[in-house]
Specification:
Layout: H1 10-16, H2 26-35, H3 43-47, H4 54-62, H5 66-76, H6 80-86, H7 93-96, H8 109-122, E1 138-142, H9 146-157, E2 161-165, H10 174-177, H11 186-197, E3 202-204, H12 215-221, E4 224-227, E5 247-249, H13 250-257, E6 270-274, H14 278-289, E7 294-298, H15 310-318, E8 322-324, E9 327-334, E10 338-348, E11 359-361, E12 367-370, E13 373-376, H16 384-387, E14 395-396, E15 399-400, E16 414-416, H17 419-422, H18 427-445
Parallel strand pairs: 1-2, 1-4, 2-3, 4-16, 5-13, 6-7, 6-13, 7-8
Antiparallel strand pairs: 9-10, 10-11, 10-12, 14-15
Helix pairs in contact: 2-4, 4-5, 4-8, 5-8, 6-8, 9-11, 9-18, 13-14, 14-15
This protein binds iron/sulfur cluster (SF4).
Length: 449
């Protein structure tokens, strides 16, 4: 980079990346839990993809049974701490809370869940679940991200020998590498990995299937296989200058920040982020909190078309991120390293038509934004190269096709869940998929239907 932002002190970094939803004290948790109406039809529970028994876990907090509360939560969701801290609760459980209908603040379900699960880890993970006796069957899991961990934990409790194969050197997938550190910490994710290992699951890191172990070897070792791989890299911007130094992928950038080794992370003095989804917001706010003087989000459509959640957009605005809407990148300018992003203003081709309209550049509207770093956050491609190595699979829009009841793919030995089947939804969806797939695998292996 031509111009990196000056380094901050360790204290400043820690302050900038401090938890945006600090933990409840015991009094706060009990007071909040006592607000819950314990609704008989629990709309909050229905809105959670893992269907945690929310009113029951809240009631247990209210009565001082925090360990029991953690058990209720974990029985439905093995990555409950990640979900408590990183779920978009406003549009899931808390969004469904009946208090919203009364014009009052919904119950802080995410923070209560965090209170119970923090307690569980802080108290050394007391034994709450006992794995069934070994059933002599073995399952291989590809990927130690949220869906793989959830599937592995559930299978281990059902009596299976489970081995997770993880390409990276640290397990946890997106929970470890892809969530902004002011939402959750690297350590939170590793605690959840330890919980899954405590059920007897083996995790082999640095193991890329197809490279360190062939597909044939994997199939020979296991009775069934769960695919929990994430997505690949951002697609190309298809504009000149993309290869210049200082152009980075958003997930690579976020992964460089999550271990909190501040002195090893460089950020540009002036940064442009291309895209306006939740990942783009994370990357932009992280760049700003690392000390970038100016961070600009460039998005070819309008404010109302952003895929980022409203609360993420608010966070970015509060962090002083600038937004250029109806603006498309046209060329990256630089001599070896990035110096500027040339953009063009965009407009609707047919402004009076309904639905999502195609865009066209506004003639002679080109302008340049001087930048030292460009972060690409325009979504991710499917991991097709890898998935195609497995024979007999079917795909829909690049995603692995599964039976949504059993999570079984068109290749009968394989089951799948998480980003590779949904193109990149929430971590909680991956947790639900993994658990459902475990039962699909159990049904398949013991021919229960
Ligand atoms: Fe409690 Fe709200 Fe759920 Fe009702 S909807 S059980 S008040 S959290």
């Amino acid at each position: 980079m031509n111009n990196t932002a000056p380094k901050l002190t360790n204290e400043q970094y820690e302050k900038n990346f401090a938890d945006i939803h600090p933990a409840f004290t015991q009094n706060q948790a009990v007071t909040e839990a006592n607000r819950c109406l314990y609704c008989f039809d629990s709309p909050c529970m229905k809105a959670c993809p893992t269907h945690i028994d929310i009113s029951t876990f809240i009631k247990k907090i209210a009565t001082g049974n925090v360990k029991g509360s953690a058990k209720t939560i974990l029985a439905s969701n093995w990555i409950a701490l990640t979900c408590a801290k990183a779920c978009p609760v406003d549009v899931l459980c808390e969004g469904a809370c009946v208090y919203n209908d009364r014009g009052e603040e919904p119950i802080k379900i995410g923070r209560l869940q965090r209170y119970a699960i923090d307690w569980y880890f802080e108290h050394g993970m007391p034994a709450l679940f006992t794995p069934a006796p070994k059933n002599g069957k073995s399952v291989g899991v590809i990927g130690a991200g949220p869906s793989g961990l959830a599937c592995a934990a559930e299978l281990a409790l059902l009596g299976y020998d489970v081995t997770i194969y993880e390409g990276k050197d640290v397990a946890g997938g997106l929970d470890t590498w892809g969530i902004a550190p002011y939402k959750m910490t690297y350590k939170d994710s590793l605690n959840e990995v330890k919980l899954v290992q405590s059920f007897g699951v083996t995790i082999k890191t640095g193991m890329w299937i197809g490279k360190n172990l062939t597909i044939a070897e994997l199939e020979k070792k296991h009775d069934a296989i769960f695919i929990g791989v994430g997505l690949g890299k951002s697609p190309s911007l298809k504009i000149p200058g993309e290869d210049l130094k200082g152009v980075v992928d958003a997930l690579d950038f976020i992964a460089s920040v999550t271990p909190r080794k501040w002195s090893t992370v460089d950020v540009g003095h002036r940064v442009a982020v291309i895209g306006a989804g939740n990942t783009a917001i994370d990357a932009a706010t992280e760049a700003k909190r690392l000390g970038a003087e100016q961070v600009t989000i460039v998005y070819r459509r309008g404010e109302n078309d952003m895929s980022a959640y409203d609360f993420e957009y608010e966070l970015a605005k509060n962090d002083g991120i600038l937004f250029h809407f109806h603006t498309a990148p046209q060329r990256i300018i630089g001599n070896g390293t990035v110096e500027a992003l040339e953009c063009v203003k965009m407009r609707l081709r047919n402004p009076v038509a309904k639905g999502k309209q195609s865009l066209e550049p506004v003639p002679k509207s080109e302008f340049q934004i001087p930048v030292d770093m460009i972060i690409k956050a325009i979504g991710q491609d499917a991991n097709e190269n890898f998935l195609e190595q497995i024979g007999g699979m079917e795909f829909v829009d690049g995603n692995v096709a599964v039976n949504t009841e059993t999570m079984r793919t068109a290749n009968p030995k394989y089951f799948a869940g998480g980003d590779c089947i949904n193109g990149g939804k929430e971590v909680v969806n991956a947790a639900a998929d993994g658990k459902k797939a475990a039962h699909g695998i159990d049904t398949f292996i013991f021919n229960k239907r």
